[in-house]
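Model the whole thing, not chain by chain.
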Amino acid sequence: MIITTTWYLLLAAVLFSIGTTGLLVRRNPLIMFMCIELMLNAVNITFVSIGSHLNDLGGQLAVFFVLVVAAAEVVIGLALVVAIMRRRSRTNADDLKILGG
Amino acid sequence: MIDLVWLIPAFPLLGFLTLICLGKSVREPIAGWLATTAIAGSFLSVLIVFIGMLLEKNENRQTVFTLFDWIPAGDFKVDIGFLADPLSITMCLFITGVGTLIHLYSIGYMHGDPDFNRFFTYLNLFAFSMLMLVLGDNLLLTFLGWEGVGACSYLLISFWFRDPANATAGKKAFITNRVGDWGFMVAMFLIFFNFGSLEYLEIFDILGSNQIAETTTTFIVLMLFVGAMGKSAQFPLYLWLPDAMAGPTPVSALIHAATMVTSGVYLLIRVNPIMVEASTWSTGLIAWVGAGTALFAASIAVAQTDIKKVLAYSTVSQLGYMVLAVGCGAYTAAIFHMITHAFFKALLFLGAGSVIHGMDGEQDLRRYGGLRSLMPITAGTFIVGWLAIAGVPPFAGFWSKDEILAFAWDKNPLLWLVGIVTALLTAFYMTRQVILTFFGKPRYLNVGDAGDAGDAGDAGDAGDAGDAGDAGEIHPHESPWTMTLPLVALAFLSLVGGFIQLPFSSSTKRLEHWLEPATFHNETHLHLSSSTLWILALLALVSVAIGIGVGISTYLKEKIDRQIFEKPSLVNAWYFDSAVSKFMGGSGSKAFTAVAKFDKEVIDGAVDGTGQIVKKTASILRRSQNGLVRTYALGIGIGAVGLLIWFLTRTTL
C-alpha cells in the first residue's frame, strides 16, 4: 500500500482537529499549551508533505520558521504559566478573566 | 521708501506688546506717552511711504509687500502682505494722524483713571488692527483687522465695565457687528469659490480677463454691503453706534467717528472693480440706504439732549453720505468726505470731551450754556468744527458734501433732495448744540432758576434734574494743553482739509488724480454743466443758511418754540431702538427660543445621536470581550473556518 500525500494531509487534519478541540474544551493552561503545539505540528506536517509532493524546498523552509516561532512562543507562554501558578496554584484559564478589568 | 510699509502697523503692535508686558508697572503719564510715541512713529512711517509714493510715477504707485506665508494649504494660499497704494496710504495718513492727536488728547482726558494703562494698551491694539484692515493685501487679512477693531471697540466701549450699562453697550455693539461679519464672511466664501483667490489684485486681474456672471458679482457686493452696514452703522444696523458713546470720549472720537466706522466704506471702495461689474440696482440700493440713513439719523440728532448722542447720530448721518457717494460710484468723493469728516468729527468729539471734562462729567446739553468765555479754546475750535460739518465755505465739510450732492443729483435728483434736506438738518442740529453749549445763560449753577424752567419742562425727566441738584457746585474750566493742542490742530485741518479736492478745474482735483491707481478709472464721471454745479452749490448754501438761521432764532433768540422740533418721536429715535428691543424681548425671543430648540434637538440631536448609537452598540459588543481565553480561541476558530469557506466557495464559483 502506497502512502500518498493525502494520508499525510488527513493525519494533519486529524491532529489539528484534536488540537483545536482540546484548546476549546480544556481549562488547564498547560494542556491548552500542548494543544497549540499539536496544532502547530499538524501545520508543519502539511507543509512538509505538500513540499515533498510539489518537490519544493519552500515547504521545509516554512517549517523551520514555525519551529522557531513556536520555541519563542513556548518560552513566553511557559513563563506566563509558571508566574500564574506561583500566585494561585489551582488556576485554570477561565479564572484569568479577572485580568479583563 | 515704499518698502517701509511694514513699519506702519509694526509701531502700534510694538507699543501694544510693550504696554501689555509692562502692565501696571508703568506710572500714569508714561503709559500714555509710550502709546503716543508708538502711533506717532507709525505716522512718521506713513509720511515716509507717502513721500516715497509721491516720487513714483502714477502707474508705479501700487505695490504689494509680502512679509511671509500665513496660511499655505494646497491651492489656498494667504500671505501676510501689505498692499501699498494711494487708497490705503491715504487711509493710513488720517488714521495715524488723527490717531496721534487723539492719543495725545487722551493723556489729558484719562488723567486720574485707575485703568490708565489698560486704556492705552487697547488704543494701540486698535491702531494696529485698523492699519492691518487698511493695508491687508487680501480679504482675509482685512477680515483679521476687521475683527480686531471690532474686539477693541467692544473692549473700549465697555471700558468702564463696572457700570452694567456700559458693559451692555459693548455687547450690543459686538453682537450687532456680528450680523455684518456674517455678510463679510459669506462674501469671502463666494469670492474664493468664484475667483479661487482672496488677494485683491489677483481678484481684479481675474475680473478683467474672465467673464464672471453679473448675478455672482451682485450677490458678492450685496453681502459685502451687509458687512459695511454693520461696521459703518447703516440702517438698520446703526443701532449700536449711539450706544457706543458709553465709552470714554477719545474712543468715540477715534473709533466711532474718525476711523473704524469708515472701514465699511473703505471696503466697498477697495473692491470697486467688483462693484462696477454688479448690477445697477444693487449700487442703487446702496445709494438709497446711505441717503435714507443720512436723513433718518439727522432727524434724530435734532432732538437729542446728550452732547455725545447728538454727535453719534450725526456720525451715522455723515456715514450715510459716504455710503450714498459709494452707491453713486463717486469713490473719490466718499474718501474725500471720509477725510474731512475724520477731521471735523474728531474735533467735535474731542471738543465735547473737553466740555464734559470741564463740567465734571455732565453730558446733558440742557445743563450747559454760556461756556464760551470759560473755555475759549474749546469753544473756538468747536465753532470751527460746527462750521465745517454744517457746510459753510471755505471749511472742509462744504467741499466734500457738495461733491457728494453733485453726484447724487447726477444719479437721481430724489437722492439729491434727501441729501439737501439732511444738510439743512445737519446745520440746524449743530447750531442747536453750539448755542446750547457755549451761548446763552449758564444753566448749570442754580437748577431751580427761572431760566431753567423751560428746559426742565421739555426734559420731562425729573431724575436728571435731581442729579444736577446734587452736583451743585460745578466750576467749568479750560482743559490742559495735551487736550487743547489736538483741538487746535484738528481745527486747522477742518479749515484747510477741503483744499485737497477743489471742484473748479481738473488740476485742482488733486485727490481724484492721486487715487486713480486704486479706483482703476471705475469712477463715475459727472455729466453736469458748470452752471448746474453752481446752482446746486448755491442751493446747498441756502439750505445751510436756513438751518443755521432757524437754529439761531429758536435757541438763541428763542423766537420759535423749540417744542416744534424736539418731538417725542425724535427724542426716542423714532422708537426704532425700543421697537427692536421689544420685538427681541417678546415675540422675537420666542422665535429665537424655537431656533435654539431646533438647534439643540435637531442639530445637536443628530451629533449626539451618532455618539449615542456608537455607545449603545459598543456596550452590547463589549460583552463579547469577557476575558475567557477559550472564547477568543473559539472566535478565532470560527473566523478561520469562515474564511476558509469563503476562499473555497470563491474559487469554485
